[in-house]
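FAQ: What does the model actually see?

It sees only this:
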Amino acid sequence: MNKGKGDFFRSSFFRFVLVGGIGFIIEAITLTLIAQYSSLGPIWGRAVSFPLAVLSTWWLNRKLTFRSQNPPGAEGLRYFGVQILGALTNTGIFILTVKAIPSLWNIPVVPLAFGSLGGLVVNFILSAKIVFVPLRSKK
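And it is asked to produce this:
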């Protein structure tokens, strides 16, 4: 069957990417406000902004991307765990890229982009296969 161009924009992957963008904005605003207007600074500010962004993206992905009907407690914990794995993947690819291509030391946005793409793929696959898998009802 021939899929139309509009199918991508209705796909769960596209919605996942959009939700991730919203999560980035939520984290960026929260982190900026904390760094500028509190004594926490940017490092400890991430301890607030990251969980807030994860909670926001979990809820949006639950409702919009995967339309989950699962009980929220365990699903939320699985999602947080997946996000940590994605963040580790992101950071690992970033570090490996900078180490492998030293000329990128002064252009960190390139390894950041590679890391972000790697984290996105890990997060999407694990979210689709582990987090938002419909649970079978007990009969």
